[in-house]
Amino acid sequence: xxxxxxxxxxxxxxxxxxxxxxxxxxxxxxxxxxxxxxxxxxxxxxxxxxxxxxxxxxxxxxxxxxxxxxxxxxxxxxxxxxxxxxxxxxxxxxxxxxxxxxxxxxxxxxxxxxxxxxxxxxxxxxxxxxxxxxxxxxxxxxxxxxxxxxxxxxxxxxxxxxxxxxxxxxxxxxxxxxxxxxxxxxxxxxxxxxxxxxxxxxxxxxxxxxxxxxxxxxxxxx
Length: 222
Fold this sequence. Notes:
alpha/beta; 41% helix
Protein backbone atom coordinates (compact mmCIF):
# COMPACT_ATOMS: atom_id res chain seq x y z
CA UNK A 1 0.00 0.00 0.00
CA UNK A 2 1.19 3.50 -0.84
CA UNK A 3 0.74 6.35 1.64
CA UNK A 4 1.18 10.12 1.39
CA UNK A 5 2.17 12.15 4.46
CA UNK A 6 1.46 15.90 4.27
CA UNK A 7 3.09 17.36 7.39
CA UNK A 8 5.18 20.52 7.79
CA UNK A 9 6.92 19.34 10.97
CA UNK A 10 9.78 17.71 9.13
CA UNK A 11 11.10 15.67 12.05
CA UNK A 12 7.67 14.21 12.75
CA UNK A 13 7.00 13.56 9.06
CA UNK A 14 10.28 11.73 8.53
CA UNK A 15 9.83 9.76 11.75
CA UNK A 16 6.37 8.62 10.64
CA UNK A 17 7.67 7.79 7.17
CA UNK A 18 10.49 5.69 8.60
CA UNK A 19 8.15 3.77 10.88
CA UNK A 20 5.50 3.16 8.23
CA UNK A 21 8.13 2.07 5.72
CA UNK A 22 9.31 -0.50 8.25
CA UNK A 23 5.69 -1.70 8.44
CA UNK A 24 5.88 -2.48 4.72
CA UNK A 25 4.20 0.59 3.22
CA UNK A 26 5.56 2.77 0.42
CA UNK A 27 5.58 6.32 1.81
CA UNK A 28 5.91 9.74 0.16
CA UNK A 29 6.33 12.93 2.22
CA UNK A 30 5.59 16.57 1.39
CA UNK A 31 5.61 19.57 3.73
CA UNK A 32 3.26 22.03 2.01
CA UNK A 33 -0.50 22.00 1.52
CA UNK A 34 -0.44 22.96 -2.16
CA UNK A 35 2.16 20.32 -2.95
CA UNK A 36 0.19 17.81 -0.92
CA UNK A 37 -2.96 18.54 -2.91
CA UNK A 38 -1.06 18.26 -6.20
CA UNK A 39 0.60 14.99 -5.20
CA UNK A 40 -2.63 13.46 -3.87
CA UNK A 41 -4.48 14.46 -7.05
CA UNK A 42 -1.82 13.19 -9.44
CA UNK A 43 -0.59 10.14 -7.54
CA UNK A 44 -2.13 6.77 -6.77
CA UNK A 45 -2.38 6.59 -2.99
CA UNK A 46 -4.21 4.20 -0.72
CA UNK A 47 -4.30 6.67 2.18
CA UNK A 48 -3.32 10.27 3.00
CA UNK A 49 -2.09 11.38 6.43
CA UNK A 50 -2.88 15.09 6.43
CA UNK A 51 -1.89 17.73 8.96
CA UNK A 52 -4.31 20.64 9.43
CA UNK A 53 -1.87 23.49 10.06
CA UNK A 54 0.08 23.64 6.79
CA UNK A 55 1.72 26.40 4.75
CA UNK A 56 0.16 27.11 1.37
CA UNK A 57 -3.20 25.48 2.00
CA UNK A 58 -4.40 24.19 5.34
CA UNK A 59 -5.52 20.60 5.73
CA UNK A 60 -9.22 21.48 5.75
CA UNK A 61 -8.91 23.07 2.31
CA UNK A 62 -6.80 20.23 0.93
CA UNK A 63 -9.31 17.67 2.14
CA UNK A 64 -12.29 19.63 0.84
CA UNK A 65 -10.61 20.09 -2.58
CA UNK A 66 -9.90 16.37 -2.89
CA UNK A 67 -13.47 15.44 -2.04
CA UNK A 68 -14.89 18.10 -4.37
CA UNK A 69 -12.79 16.61 -7.19
CA UNK A 70 -14.23 13.16 -6.50
CA UNK A 71 -11.19 11.58 -4.83
CA UNK A 72 -12.26 8.96 -2.29
CA UNK A 73 -8.83 8.15 -0.85
CA UNK A 74 -9.05 7.66 2.95
CA UNK A 75 -7.77 10.72 4.84
CA UNK A 76 -6.44 10.64 8.40
CA UNK A 77 -6.16 14.21 9.71
CA UNK A 78 -3.54 15.27 12.25
CA UNK A 79 -3.60 18.44 14.33
CA UNK A 80 -2.09 20.02 17.40
CA UNK A 81 -5.49 21.59 18.10
CA UNK A 82 -8.03 19.99 20.37
CA UNK A 83 -11.77 20.38 20.70
CA UNK A 84 -15.04 19.19 19.26
CA UNK A 85 -15.27 22.05 16.76
CA UNK A 86 -11.94 21.18 15.12
CA UNK A 87 -12.85 17.52 14.87
CA UNK A 88 -16.27 18.30 13.45
CA UNK A 89 -14.80 20.66 10.87
CA UNK A 90 -12.25 18.05 9.79
CA UNK A 91 -14.87 15.36 9.40
CA UNK A 92 -17.29 17.74 7.67
CA UNK A 93 -14.72 18.42 4.95
CA UNK A 94 -14.56 14.69 4.21
CA UNK A 95 -11.84 13.29 6.48
CA UNK A 96 -12.27 9.65 7.50
CA UNK A 97 -10.55 9.85 10.88
CA UNK A 98 -8.91 12.37 13.18
CA UNK A 99 -5.89 12.17 15.49
CA UNK A 100 -4.78 14.90 17.91
CA UNK A 101 -1.10 15.54 18.63
CA UNK A 102 0.71 14.32 20.58
CA UNK A 103 -0.37 10.80 19.67
CA UNK A 104 0.99 7.30 20.12
CA UNK A 105 2.68 5.88 17.03
CA UNK A 106 1.02 2.54 17.81
CA UNK A 107 -2.38 4.23 17.72
CA UNK A 108 -1.58 5.92 14.39
CA UNK A 109 -0.57 2.59 12.81
CA UNK A 110 -3.76 0.99 14.11
CA UNK A 111 -5.85 3.82 12.61
CA UNK A 112 -4.01 3.51 9.28
CA UNK A 113 -4.60 -0.26 9.12
CA UNK A 114 -8.26 0.14 10.05
CA UNK A 115 -8.83 2.74 7.30
CA UNK A 116 -7.05 0.60 4.72
CA UNK A 117 -9.11 -2.47 5.66
CA UNK A 118 -12.31 -0.44 5.53
CA UNK A 119 -11.44 0.88 2.09
CA UNK A 120 -10.34 -2.40 0.59
CA UNK A 121 -12.87 -4.77 2.06
CA UNK A 122 -15.80 -2.81 3.46
CA UNK A 123 -16.65 -2.26 7.09
CA UNK A 124 -16.87 -5.47 9.07
CA UNK A 125 -15.26 -7.65 6.41
CA UNK A 126 -12.53 -10.11 7.22
CA UNK A 127 -8.94 -8.86 6.85
CA UNK A 128 -7.91 -12.35 5.66
CA UNK A 129 -7.59 -12.77 1.90
CA UNK A 130 -7.86 -16.40 0.81
CA UNK A 131 -6.76 -17.86 -2.52
CA UNK A 132 -6.84 -21.64 -2.64
CA UNK A 133 -4.80 -22.81 0.33
CA UNK A 134 -3.02 -19.45 0.54
CA UNK A 135 -4.25 -17.13 3.30
CA UNK A 136 -2.97 -13.59 3.74
CA UNK A 137 -3.93 -11.83 6.97
CA UNK A 138 -3.56 -8.15 6.11
CA UNK A 139 -4.23 -7.03 9.69
CA UNK A 140 -1.71 -9.29 11.44
CA UNK A 141 0.55 -9.30 8.35
CA UNK A 142 0.88 -13.08 8.43
CA UNK A 143 0.85 -15.57 5.56
CA UNK A 144 -0.21 -19.22 5.65
CA UNK A 145 0.16 -21.85 2.94
CA UNK A 146 -2.01 -24.86 3.77
CA UNK A 147 -1.29 -25.39 7.49
CA UNK A 148 2.16 -23.81 7.49
CA UNK A 149 3.00 -20.18 8.27
CA UNK A 150 5.40 -18.59 5.79
CA UNK A 151 7.72 -15.86 7.06
CA UNK A 152 8.04 -12.92 4.69
CA UNK A 153 9.93 -9.64 4.82
CA UNK A 154 7.90 -6.41 4.82
CA UNK A 155 8.52 -5.82 1.10
CA UNK A 156 7.77 -9.45 0.19
CA UNK A 157 4.48 -9.18 2.06
CA UNK A 158 3.63 -5.91 0.31
CA UNK A 159 4.25 -7.44 -3.14
CA UNK A 160 2.18 -10.51 -2.29
CA UNK A 161 -0.60 -8.31 -0.93
CA UNK A 162 -0.83 -6.53 -4.28
CA UNK A 163 -1.10 -9.85 -6.11
CA UNK A 164 -3.59 -11.53 -3.78
CA UNK A 165 -5.82 -8.44 -3.65
CA UNK A 166 -6.21 -8.80 -7.43
CA UNK A 167 -5.92 -12.58 -7.67
CA UNK A 168 -6.62 -13.85 -11.16
CA UNK A 169 -5.83 -10.46 -12.71
CA UNK A 170 -2.60 -9.37 -14.34
CA UNK A 171 -0.74 -6.89 -12.12
CA UNK A 172 1.94 -4.94 -13.98
CA UNK A 173 5.43 -4.30 -12.70
CA UNK A 174 4.64 -0.56 -12.73
CA UNK A 175 1.56 -1.07 -10.54
CA UNK A 176 3.60 -3.02 -8.00
CA UNK A 177 6.33 -0.37 -7.99
CA UNK A 178 3.74 2.39 -7.48
CA UNK A 179 2.22 0.72 -4.43
CA UNK A 180 5.23 -0.95 -2.79
CA UNK A 181 8.06 1.51 -3.44
CA UNK A 182 7.85 5.23 -2.80
CA UNK A 183 7.72 8.12 -5.26
CA UNK A 184 11.43 8.84 -4.89
CA UNK A 185 12.52 5.35 -5.90
CA UNK A 186 14.68 5.63 -9.01
CA UNK A 187 16.44 2.27 -8.91
CA UNK A 188 16.15 -0.68 -11.24
CA UNK A 189 12.47 -1.58 -11.87
CA UNK A 190 13.62 -5.20 -12.12
CA UNK A 191 13.69 -5.15 -8.32
CA UNK A 192 10.10 -6.42 -8.62
CA UNK A 193 11.39 -9.59 -10.29
CA UNK A 194 13.74 -10.16 -7.37
CA UNK A 195 10.86 -10.10 -4.88
CA UNK A 196 8.60 -12.23 -7.06
CA UNK A 197 11.38 -14.81 -7.29
CA UNK A 198 11.74 -14.76 -3.50
CA UNK A 199 7.98 -15.30 -3.11
CA UNK A 200 8.09 -18.24 -5.51
CA UNK A 201 10.84 -19.85 -3.43
CA UNK A 202 8.98 -19.34 -0.17
CA UNK A 203 5.52 -20.26 -1.48
CA UNK A 204 5.22 -22.40 -4.64
CA UNK A 205 6.84 -21.71 -7.96
CA UNK A 206 3.60 -22.20 -9.90
CA UNK A 207 1.54 -19.87 -7.72
CA UNK A 208 2.72 -16.65 -9.39
CA UNK A 209 2.61 -16.74 -13.18
CA UNK A 210 4.59 -14.37 -15.38
CA UNK A 211 2.49 -12.92 -18.19
CA UNK A 212 5.16 -11.94 -20.70
CA UNK A 213 5.18 -8.23 -21.43
CA UNK A 214 2.29 -7.54 -19.05
CA UNK A 215 3.15 -8.47 -15.47
CA UNK A 216 2.26 -11.17 -12.95
CA UNK A 217 -0.85 -13.11 -12.03
CA UNK A 218 -1.63 -15.03 -8.87
CA UNK A 219 -3.50 -18.20 -9.79
CA UNK A 220 -4.28 -21.58 -8.32
CA UNK A 221 -2.07 -24.46 -9.42
CA UNK A 222 -3.75 -27.23 -11.34
